[in-house]
């Protein structure tokens, strides 16, 4: 089990369920408007879907072009976070060789980048044609008084990813995604299972609408450490969806859900 949280601070998270946009500058303009709304509503952390800056299913050439703009995009995001005094978790292409990373960055409310993650589990031909797989799981880092880990889309479907983050002390796993039909059960079943089996919060932020051959299925959600929905969007709504996370709820749940301390790593070949 993780040690007690360093603070007893509630956290309000805003998930932006939106349609993909293939233009970097248009994405930044939309972000500017929507972040202001979330900040005014009292959100502490704002989350976008996977590869929000410029789109996900757009082909290798455009992904390369967007990754080349990463430094400028990063500076713009840091300015937005500081201006509105809100932390951000944003999906973005990050330069790498031979293909860019499918990445996300976490920026604190002072506009300082505090973590960066590259998607480690690539899904299907689209991911493999466009991206280089990351080589390590997310760090667990402090953001707005909470210990947070990152995953991207397909990553959260692997129980080992969430378990590793929980064992390293994560209280919340933030997961930008670009999940499509017909895989509704990822959001309705697997995300809740990852939360409950690890007694952590999981925030899952998806697109709606179409992009190329994909029809995105929404269902963005925050699941509590008992696996219950704290907020959930439907399959077609756009907008901001809020949930307030509680350290008290987290610790109370961990008193009864003791999977982590009841594990038998001597049987699993797991040295944790």
Automatic annotation (TrEMBL):
Region (Disordered): 253-272
Family annotation (CDD domains): R-amidase_like (cd07576)
An annotated Gene Ontology molecular function: hydrolase activity
Domain of life of the native organism: Bacteria
Keywords, sorted A to Z: Hydrolase
Pfam family name, one: CN_hydrolase
Record domain CN hydrolase: where: 9-247
PANTHER family: DEAMINATED GLUTATHIONE AMIDASE, NITRILASE-RELATED
Family: Belongs to the carbon-nitrogen hydrolase superfamily. NIT1/NIT2 family.
Protein name stated in the entry: Putative amidohydrolase
Organism from which the protein derives: Sulfitobacter undariae
Lineage: Bacteria, Pseudomonadati, Pseudomonadota, Alphaproteobacteria, Rhodobacterales
